[in-house]
Amino acid sequence: MTSKPLILIVDDDAELSGMVVELLQREGWATHAVLTGGDGERDLAALHPELVLLDVMLPDANGYDLCRRWRALHPGLGIVMLTARGDPLDRVLGLEIGADDYLPKPFESRELVARVRALLRRAAPGRAESPLLRFEGLVIDLLRREVRVGEQALALTSVEFKLLVALARAPGTALSREALSDAVQAGSYRPQDRTVDVQVARLRRKLQEVRPGADWIDTVRGEGYVFVPR
C-alpha cells in the first residue's frame, strides 16, 4: 500500500499548476491537477485526495463557494486556498468558510511545501476521512465498500471485495488459499481451494477489463496469491 498522500490542485493557471505538481512530487507526494472547478468537483469525488490546493478565482466557479461546499461534504479534507488577492479580509473569509490555510500568490516554494507538510501531518480527531487503500490507479474505500480503477467504479461481489481487501492489506506478501478463505467466510465453513481460485480469477478478470495490462494480483506457485502494486 502506498503511503503517498494525494494532493488535488484546482487552478486555471496551467503553468503555475505544472510547477506546483513538479514541486510536490519532488517531496514524494502524489498529485493531480485540473483547471476548472467542475473538474475539481468531479475528481474530488473520484480520487478522494487528502488535500486540495484551491484557487479562489476559477473560470467556472467561485473558490469560496467550492470551499464551503467541500468542507461540508468532506470534513476530513485539507483545503489550502490560493489567490492573487493579498487582502487580509480575503484570508479571514477563506478561513471562516472552512479553509485550513490561505496562501497569496506569488508564494515561495519552501513556504508552500512547509504548509502542505504541516497540514498533512495534522490528524485532528473527527477530521479523518473514510479509510482508504490507495495504489497507482486503484482506490479501495473500506467504509463505502467501493473500488475505483482510475475514475471508473468497479462492480464487485461481496466475496470479490473481501478478497481484494485481504490481498491489498498485505501488498507484496503471498497469502495462502486458506488465509483468503478465512478472509472471505467467517465461521466454521471454509470454501474449497478451487472455489478460492475461481473467485480470484473472476476478480482479476474484472480488474483487467477496466485497466488492461495492469494485473495487480499474481499467482505464487505452491503458496497462493500476492497483491503487487503496479
Describe the structure.
The chain has helices spanning 14-26, 37-47, 63-73, 88-96, 109-121, 158-168, 177-184, 193-210; strands at 6-10, 30-34, 51-55, 78-83, 101-104, 132-135, 138-141, 146-149, 152-153, 217-220, 224-227. The chain has a five-stranded parallel β-sheet with strand order 2-1-3-4-5, with helices on both faces. It has a four-stranded antiparallel β-sheet with strand order 6-7-8-9, covered by helices on one side. Helix 6 (158-168) packs across helix 7 and helix 6 packs across helix 8 (193-210). With 230 residues, it is α/β, with parallel strands linked by helices. The protein is elongated, with a radius of gyration of 21 Å. Residues 130-229 form the OmpR/PhoB-type domain. This is Response regulator transcription factor. Residues 6-120 form the Response regulatory domain.
Q: What descriptors fit this protein?
A:
single chain, 230 residues, alpha/beta, five-stranded parallel beta sheet, four-stranded antiparallel beta sheet, 8 helices, 41% helix, CheY-like_superfamily, Response regulator transcription factor, DNA-binding
Calculate Rg over CA atoms: 21 Å
Q: Would you identify the regions where 5 or more consecutive residues have pLDDT less than 50? A: 123-129, 186-191
Global morphology: elongated
How much helicity do the residues have? 40-55%
What's the end-to-end separation, in Å? 11 Å
Q: Quickly count the helices.
A: 8
Structural class: alpha/beta
Q: How much of the sequence is in beta strands?
A: 15-25%
Arithmetic mean pLDDT: 83
* Largest beta-sheet details: 5 strands, parallel
Beta strands, count: 11
